[in-house]
Amino acid sequence: MMLISFFIILSYVILIGSFAFGFNKVHPFKDKNIIPKTRFSVIIPFRNEAKNLPQLLESINQLQYPKDLFEILLINDASEDDSADLINNFITSSAVFVKLLNNKRVSASPKKDAITTAIAEAKNEWIITTDADCILPDLWLNTFDVFIQENQVECIVAPVKYTAQNNFLNTFQILDLLSLQGATIGGFGIDKPFLCNGANFGYKKDLFKTLNGFDGNTETTSGDDIFLLEKAVKLNPKTVSYLKSDTAIVNTKAQPTWKTLISQRIRWAAKTSRYNNWFGKLTGSIVLFANLLIVLAFIFTLLETMTTKNLIYLLMIKFSIDLYLINKSAQFFNQKDVMKFYLFGFLIYPFFSVYVAIASLFSGYEWKGRKFKK
Questions:
Q1: What domain range is 216 assigned to?
Q2: 286 and 250 inside one domain
Q3: Does 197 share its domain with 317?
Q4: Distance (Å, rounded) from C-alpha 161 to C-alpha 21?
Q5: Could you tell me if 34 and 11 lie in one domain?
Q6: Are residues 64 and 93 in the same domain?
Q7: Which of 128, 166, 176, 370 is least crowded, fewest Cβ atoms below 10 Å from its Cβ?
Q8: Could you tell me if 55 and 192 lie in one domain?
Q9: Phi and psi based region of residue 146 (left: phi greater than 0; alpha: psi -120 to 50; beta: remaining)
Q10: Residue 185 in domain
Q11: Contact 145, 38 (CB under 8 A)
Q12: Is the same domain home to 137 and 154?
């Protein structure tokens, strides 16, 4: 048992340590004052987002990018609230070109269908996807444009953070996303990109067509971002980059309850078995086994089949290496204030992640008022 434990924790330390090393290798990108050239089609699927749309639409109005160089495509996925009315009112009052589309369902994945529907209507060369519960920074498109002009890229992964609120559930999710973003950036730094977030993801329309869109992944409800990233990396990894810029950070909302958080994470976990990227599979396995090891160590200590000293050693090792990576993310995302709750999140997370992993094997989930089977 101790030999297996040593191998798992050593693998975990090497993995997270490599992400921390890679995080530093991805240098921050600074926006420059050059003439904008890139034309963007911003795609935003939505379903029952009347509560979140006002903030999103206001942030669209505040975008500093020339209005003749971008369009906003909002795709209504059978909303049952006032979302469409809000958007129609916005269209009549805003100087931004906004088009409201209805989703054309052809697969088991509503979001992939929505993005495909919008790309068929998109007029511009670059696609950027985001979500209806997001707030866009005013220099968002400007930063993408400069990055595109200065780099030979066809696919861009960009940063996402949760909006801070004064409660532990929100803080727990911020810490979790900081670790995911750290792994995302670190993966690019060691030339093993395997994660991205559809709330801030860009690619050329021609690339989407070359990759045959979401073909091969439509039976999986989520994964509109990661599966496309896998295809892009496989085709030409040199044209896939991470945009590490504080002016490109998209703010999104954390889940309001533990129930919706668990449903979200089961939805995320359900796609992992279909990953084609070996490094992504390896990372997921090592992280899962490390968290499972911590859970079992607690149980074995209670049963007195493992010493408290060994439990403490395991906790200290994992605590230290996780802290090292998450602290780097917290600095970049300017969310250092959540680190004072790191210890509580650290103790809860292994039990949370193991539960989600097990639940994703046996149960479906509910999302946006719909039920999805395993």
A1: 27-256
A2: no
A3: no
A4: 21
A5: no
A6: yes
A7: 166
A8: yes
A9: alpha
A10: yes
A11: yes
A12: yes
139-150 mean pLDDT: 97
- Which helix H or strand E contains 92, and what residues bound it? helix 83-93
Q: Provide the edge-to-edge strand list for the sheet that holds 98-102.
A: 98-102, 70-76, 40-46, 126-129, 201-204, 155-157, 240-242
d(CA 39, CA 58): 21
Q: Is residue 264 part of a domain?
A: no
Domain count, the chain: 2
67: its two tokens: 């209005």
Q: Nearest-CA neighbor of 118 among 132, 133, 95, 99?
A: 99
Measured N-to-C along each axis, helices 168-189 and 2-25 cross at an angle, to the nearest 10 degrees, of: 80
What span, in angstroms and rounded, lies between the C-alpha atoms of 230 and 286?
A: 19
The DSSP output letter for 152 is -
Structure tokens at 56: 């999103």
Whether residues 186 and 300 share a domain: the answer is: no
CA distances from 307 to 2, 68, 165, 269, 350 (A): 11, 66, 39, 32, 19
Here the CATH number for the domain that contains residue 246 is: 3.90.550.10
Mean per-residue pLDDT for 55-82? Answer: 96
Could you give the CA distance from residue 141 to residue 202 in angstroms, rounded to a whole number?
A: 10
Tokens of 120: 């068929």
Number of H helices, E strands in the chain: 12, 12
Determine the average pLDDT of the residues in 82-97.
95
